[in-house]
Amino acid sequence: MTARSRYWLTLSGLLGATVIVVGLAPVPLVLVLGGFLMAGFLATAALYGQWRRDVMRSGATGAPVPVFSGIITFNVALLLRGSELGWYLIPVLAAALFIGCFAWARKHGPYVKPEDVRGGQS
């Protein structure tokens, strides 16, 4: 598996885990786990050399599909939060987001090799 595939697999897994945390975890635990997940996103960007890209630091993204599908899925998870149906549908939503984002990212996801980045310029 290439570094690009591992990078997007990790990010897709973190997105899926975030949906499960948002939808199923109790409120105090959401804050704690949310902090760990944010650290995971930052560590993934640093580990795969994507942190030095100007677009990553400025908040701009070249990956609209994971962002918009994540926003929609998080909102649906919030709507299902606390319902009996949520216990069944939220893991399905998380798996769908994971698979969909990873499938999209393997073909279209932006990735700059760390050695191609010079001084923070992409």
Residue runs with pLDDT of under 50 for 5 or more positions: none
Distance between the termini: 24 Å
Oligomeric state of the chains? single chain
What's the overall average pLDDT, rounded? Answer: 82
Could you tell me the strand content as a percent range? under 5%
Give the helix proportion (percent range): over 70%
Principal-axis shape: globular
Biggest sheet architecture:
none
Instruction: Give the beta-strand count.
Output: 0
Question: Helices and strands, in N-to-C order?
Answer: HHHHH
Class by alpha and beta content: mainly alpha
Q: What's the number of helices?
A: 5
The rounded Rg comes to 15 Å
Account of the 3D structure:
This protein is an all-alpha fold. Helix content is 72%, strand content 0%. The chain is built from five helices and no strands. Helix 1 runs antiparallel to helix 2 and helix 1 runs parallel beside helix 4. The longest helix is centred in the last third of the chain and has 23 residues.
Please summarize what this structure is.
With 122 residues, this protein is mainly alpha-helical. Helices cover 72% and strands 0% of the residues.
Q: Mind sketching the topology for me?
A:
Elements: H1 3-24, H2 27-47, H3 54-58, H4 64-80, H5 86-108
Helix pairs in contact: 1-2, 1-4, 1-5, 4-5
Summary tags:
single chain; 122 residues; mainly alpha; 5 helices; 72% helix
